[in-house]
Each structure stands twice: as structure tokens, then as C-alpha cells.
From TrEMBL:
This is MH2 domain containing protein. Gene3D superfamilies: 2.60.200.10. PROSITE patterns: MH2. Keywords: Transcription, Transcription regulation. The keyword Transcription applies. Residues 22-188 form the MH2 domain. It comes from the Eukaryota. The keyword Coiled coil does not apply. One of its GO terms (biological process) is regulation of multicellular organismal process. GO terms for cellular component: heteromeric SMAD protein complex. InterPro entries: Dwarfin, SMAD-like_dom_sf, SMAD_dom_Dwarfin-type, SMAD_FHA_dom_sf. GO terms for molecular function: I-SMAD binding; transcription regulator inhibitor activity.
Length: 188
């Protein structure tokens, strides 16, 4: 790691990063991350189940690294289909559900501060999943916690076809077969 001296004279880590990168995507199967982080610098990106569905992140390709996935994961992968499109528009982040199944989204700018439950997005619907105005008005620090543990306000989580929380048999997102974590820049 190279160190660069900022204006105040303190040493800080210098990261070589694309200045246009607005997020990184992490694909998870249950509690295991599958594949590397996927950097996004285009205004929109498609995340889909199988290779023929276009340009973007193919979860089928990443899933080849997890050949011993449980049957529940393999079954959920089949439901992703066209998946989702993430779009960044003037700082707002939108998710477009292109799948035939619902997705479940968790973001601190979506929910009531007292109830960090995921929001269900039906097939062929869209939702603003990050609102920079709301984020600026909330004073979240690194140690912000919910009843479900610590939360990074720059992270958005999307589960494909399966919900989690008190209303579901899966209490944590790490119990969902296939899910995506969107790490908004600056990525931590």
C-alpha cells in the first residue's frame, strides 16, 4: 500500500480506484461470498442469473466457484432469471426488478429507523433504494446498530425471491440462498 500525505500532514492510505466507480457488488450464497467484488462505474448495471441475459454481472458465472452449494441455493438461483438493474441517477440509486419473482431490499434510507425490515419489490417494479438527501439528514456513524447487528449506511442488500426478518423463517439475510450486497462509494 502506498501512503500519501494529505493537506493536514497526516499519513493516509492511498487507494488506486476508478474515480467514476460508484459502487462495488458482492454476491452471496447464504453466509458465503461467492467470487470477487464487482466494481461499477457505468450509470447502470444488470445483475442476472444466466449468461444470455446481457451485459453485466452473471451470477451463474460466479456460482461456478461454489459447486457444492446446497439444493436450496441451486433452486433459488433458477428463480433469478433476468434479475435486476441498478441505476444511479443524480446520486439516487434505483433497483428495477426484471425477474419474474419478488426481490427484498434493505437500505437505511428506505426504512423506518425503528424497524430495519426489508422492503418487498414485486416482479417488474422499481424502487429508489438509496436517497442521498435522506442519508445526509441521518447522522449514522460506523457503530450504528439495529436489533440485527451493526449496519453500514452505505450498504444496500437485495435478496432474490426470499425475504428475511421477523415475518419470515429466515431471520438474517445470511440465511437467504442468493443475495447481493451493494457497497456504495466510498466503499469500506
Amino acid at each position: 500500500m502506498h501512503l500519501a500525505a494529505p493537506a493536514d500532514g497526516r499519513l493516509a492510505p492511498h487507494r488506486y480506484q476508478n474515480p467514476f466507480e460508484w459502487c462495488k457488488l458482492a454476491y452471496w450464497e447464504l453466509a458465503q461470498r461467492v467470487g470477487p467484488l464487482y466494481p461499477v462505474d457505468n450509470p447502470a448495471v444488470n445483475i442476472f442469473g444466466k449468461v444470455p441475459y446481457g451485459d453485466g454481472l452473471s451470477l451463474e458465472t460466479l456460482a461456478q466457484q461454489n459447486r457444492n452449494a446446497p439444493e436450496s441455493v441451486q433452486h433459488a438461483r433458477c428463480k433469478i432469471g433476468l434479475g435486476v438493474t441498478l441505476s444511479r441517477e443524480d446520486g439516487y440509486v434505483w433497483v428495477y426488478n426484471r425477474s419474474d419473482n419478488p426481490i427484498f431490499v434493505n437500505s437505511l434510507t428506505l426504512e423506518n429507523e425503528d424497524s430495519p425490515l426489508p422492503t418487498r419489490v414485486p416482479a417488474e417494479q422499481c424502487l429508489c433504494v438509496f436517497d442521498p438527501v435522506k442519508a445526509a439528514h441521518r447522522n449514522y456513524g460506523w457503530d450504528f446498530t439495529t436489533p440485527f447487528g451493526p449496519v453500514d449506511p452505505n450498504s444496500i442488500r437485495i435478496s432474490f425471491a426470499k425475504g428475511w426478518g421477523p415475518r419470515y423463517c429466515r431471520q438474517e439475510i445470511t440465511s437467504c440462498p442468493c443475495w447481493l450486497e451493494i457497497l456504495l462509494a466510498p466503499c469500506r
